[in-house]
Design a protein that fits this description.
Layout lengths: L9 E6 L2 H12 L2 E5 L3 E5 L6 E6 L7 E3 L4 E3 L2 E3 L3 H10 L8 E3 L2 E7 L5 E7 L6 H18 L1
Parallel strand pairs: 1-4, 7-10
Antiparallel strand pairs: 2-3, 3-4, 5-6, 8-9, 9-10
């Protein structure tokens, strides 16, 4: 039986200045522009299907929800080498939190020009999500090697 839903197609991130924000995401994460218009900009990681739509808004909007104990963000970006990701973003001038470790993941936060938090996350073997992510690691590792 065929699946009726395959994956997440895209995420939306509210931004107040499309040019500034698209330049930031493309520069920081080496993304590519798919579309740029008056109300939105579509960007994607090279060789990946899921894309991000930066949507123009009048004022910054929250990209997290409050559990009462934590503020959780609606999306994370995956890293397969958190230390390398941290070094490279720092070299590009990104504002970064410290690297944190919790429940089988290591992560840090960076902030786009509107202050939207972008979590960069690496999953380790003691995480319940590790085995699932490793199914895709071989493909991602091959893609990264081909880009280098």
């Amino acid at each position: 039986m065929e699946k009726i839903i395959a994956k997440i197609s895209n995420i939306f991130i509210p931004v107040t200045d499309l040019k500034r924000s698209s330049d930031w995401y493309i520069g920081m994460f080496e993304m590519e522009m798919i579309e740029f218009g008056e109300r939105k900009a579509g960007i994607a990681f090279p060789n990946r299907e899921t894309f991000i739509v930066l949507w123009k808004v009048a004022k910054p909007q929250p990209v997290h929800f409050d559990t009462g104990e934590l503020k959780l963000h609606y999306y994370n970006f995956t890293s397969y080498d958190i230390n390398r990701s941290y070094r490279e973003l720092a070299a590009k001038g990104a504002t970064l939190s410290e690297i944190h470790e919790h429940d089988g993941i290591r992560y840090f936060e960076t902030y786009d020009p509107d202050g939207n938090v972008v979590n960069i996350v690496e999953t380790f073997e003691d995480s319940p999500y590790y085995a699932h992510k490793m199914k895709f690691w071989k493909e991602a590792k091959t893609d990264l090697a081909n880009e280098g």
